[in-house]
Design brief:
With 413 residues, the protein is α+β, with helices and mostly antiparallel strands. The protein folds into 3 domains: 2-164, Beta-Lactamase (2-Layer Sandwich), CATH 3.30.450.40; 175-248; 256-410, Histidine kinase-like ATPase, C-terminal domain (Heat Shock Protein 90). The chain is built from 11 helices and 14 strands. The protein has helices at residues 2-9, 19-34, 76-84, 103-110, 143-162, 166-215, 221-248, 260-275, 296-312, 352-355, 375-385; strands at 38-45, 50-58, 63-65, 69-71, 88-90, 112-122, 125-135, 256-258, 279-285, 291-294, 318-329, 336-345, 389-394, 400-410. Strands 1, 2, 3, 4, 5, 6 and 7 form a 7-stranded antiparallel sheet that branches. A hairpin with a 2-residue loop joins strand 6 (112-122) and strand 7. The longest helix is centred in the middle third of the chain and has 50 residues, at 166-215. It starts with a helix and ends with a strand.
Length: 413
């Protein structure tokens, strides 16, 4: 442990050693020194209502990942413990008063039996936590283990200060920008949902009156046809208001550790029914995809929206490719291992201008009356909440590929 402490001191931020590089080396050193399989560095975000993983190291496979987000609403006792205690030494994490809430969603799926967590401080305030996660038989944490965990958290704090918070603040600013955009979208959604509710009441009256007119005997044919058109337009409006109302309501979420390949396997038969016989779905399963922390129902919603969009881009039929794979991202502000969901079509494609707007609420490239412009907005909101990101590749008449990157929380067992 003394050798490890000295190694931590020698890590100095600079042009050749970024803060992320230092965090990775701290996690690797801590895992090897304490003898645990997983060490992660997490920071408080979203006005201290969530923890976002900056670096997660898996010792067995010597790999890193990032981006997973835990919400205070799901684990209030754990967040309270971080605010009030120097460390959380949980021999039996599934029954410890501070960590037991994590059992079903996080501990059991990852085979974590014991946890040793130390808060990270900045100017006397908790800004995050370094987590040591032990698998196997429950482990009693010694006084030396606890002291070393505190040393690790202090080292992280010092490295942040030494780097003048440039990289850390940049990452937090980026997340704050995403959160701000998300909050704006949700405010717009709530406004739209309120308007949709009132409009739906008006449509009920319109549809009722039009139905009465259509049922009147001895009507001229042209009047009956007009009534029919009113009803058809009203029904389209009713469908749109339902979409707007659903978009505006923030659904309760139950994120947990899941295998996206297994979920996709179960959904593909439903997708094939949804797209119809003119479209074929090819599902490519990557080997050892790993695990992701997300609400499985929300993931299914992402997949369904992307596949239906791909179908609509090929009105004459065609093949839709769905793939799941583990990727190592080292570009566009990402680093480490991610689980990637890819959905591709060979349809009409999009120009650059349309690509820049496809996630805007109520924007659609579909013909008038054929789309609400909410499907991809919903996808973006779900992916942002999961700590992920989306890339779009498209060209007019050459199809579209959408890749969704979800933070990987663990490798496959």
């Amino acid at each position: 442990m003394e050798a490890a402490r000295l190694a931590l001191v020698r890590l100095i931020p600079g042009p050749e050693l970024s803060l992320t590089d230092i965090f990775r080396e701290i996690c690797r050193t801590a895992a090897n020194t304490v003898g645990v399989n997983r060490v992660g560095i997490w920071f408080l975000v979203d006005e201290r209502t969530a923890l976002r993983c900056s670096v997660l190291y898996e010792r067995d496979i010597d790999e890193f990942s990032e981006g997973t987000t835990l919400s205070e609403a799901d684990f209030p006792a754990y967040f309270a413990a971080l605010e009030n205690r120097r460390s959380i030494p949980a021999k039996r994490a599934t029954s410890n008063e501070s960590t037991h809430e994590l059992s079903a969603a996080y501990l059991y799926p990852l085979n974590i039996s014991s946890m040793l967590d130390a808060p990270i401080f900045e100017n006397g305030e908790v800004i995050g936590v370094v987590c040591h996660e032990h698998s196997g038989m429950p482990r009693e944490w010694t006084l030396e283990d606890r002291d070393f965990a505190a040393t690790v958290s202090d080292a992280i704090s010092l490295k942040i200060k030494a780097a003048a918070l440039i990289e850390a603040r940049s990452a937090l600013r980026k997340h704050s920008e995403i959160t701000l955009a998300l909050n704006k979208a949700e405010s717009l959604a709530r406004l739209a949902a309120g308007a949709a509710h009132d409009f739906r009441n008006l449509l009920t009256i319109i549809l009722g009156c039009a139905g009465e007119i259509q049922r009147t005997k001895h009507l001229p044919d042209d009047i009956r046809e007009m009534a029919k058109q009113i009803i058809e337009a009203g029904e389209r409006g009713a469908a749109l208001t339902r979409e707007m109302t659903n978009y505006g309501e923030r659904e309760a979420e139950s994120p947990r550790v899941v295998n996206l390949t297994e979920i996709t396997d179960g959904v593909v038969p439903l997708l094939r029914t949804a797209v119809g016989p003119k479209h074929q779905i090819q599902f490519e399963r990557g080997a050892l995809v790993g695990k992701t922390f997300i609400d499985p129902i929300q993931y299914e919603r992402v997949l369904m929206n992307l596949v239906v969009n791909a179908r609509d881009a090929m009105p004459s039929g065609g093949e839709i490719s769905v793939s799941i794979a583990t990727v190592d991202c080292r570009e566009a502000g990402r680093s480490g291992k991610y689980t990637m969901l890819g959905v591709s079509d060979t349809g009409v494609g999009m120009d650059v201008q349309n690509q820049s707007r496809i996630f805007d609420p109520y924007f659609t490239t579909k013909p008038r009356g054929k789309g609400t412009g909410l499907g991809l907005a919903v996808v973006k909101r779900i992916v942002d909440r999961a700590g992920g990101s989306i890339d779009v590749t498209s060209a007019v008449d050459h199809g579209t590929t959408i890749r969704v990157y979800f933070p990987r929380i663990a490798c496959d067992a």
